[in-house]
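Side project, low priority. Logging it here so it doesn't get lost.
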Amino acid sequence: IDDLSVKHAGSDTELLADGDMEAYQDIVRATFNWDEWDAAMERSLKLNHFNTFILSMPGLGGGDYHSRREGFLLGHAMGTPEHEAIFAAWCQQVREHLRDKGWLHMAVSYPYDEPHPQDIPFIVSQLQLIKKYFPELKCMIPTNGEAKQELVGLQDYWCTMTSGHKQAFAD
């Protein structure tokens, strides 16, 4: 983020030194109200005996075997420095909250469903971003038996239809 000008309305007084935003990237913070979410999680864990949950992650885009949608955060496309800064801040805050509640080990990301081979580069970019900013988060992508070597090391849980299982890949 660079070359930004911020001034008081009706004034020429510059509020940012040299228009340089690099020094301000660490102040990107969302405000969360966890009250309802925490209550629902506590109820699910206690009454329904959940031991995992899917953590939806904003801005990653996603898709399935029918279609794909690109990721955006606050109007910034995935792959831009602005998107990455916002995503990193979101991950940090959510990770801290889940760790504080003792739920981090139960969280699973499910960013894509049954990808086609042409979707693999997109999925790799999603998983790399997750692993960079939320390395403790487990990732799962259901596959139709055509799992790709490119996902090894990025994906924690392999979920395939047993009728499509490829023993050669598993070996």
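Brief comment: The longest helix spans residues 81-101.
Revisit when time allows.
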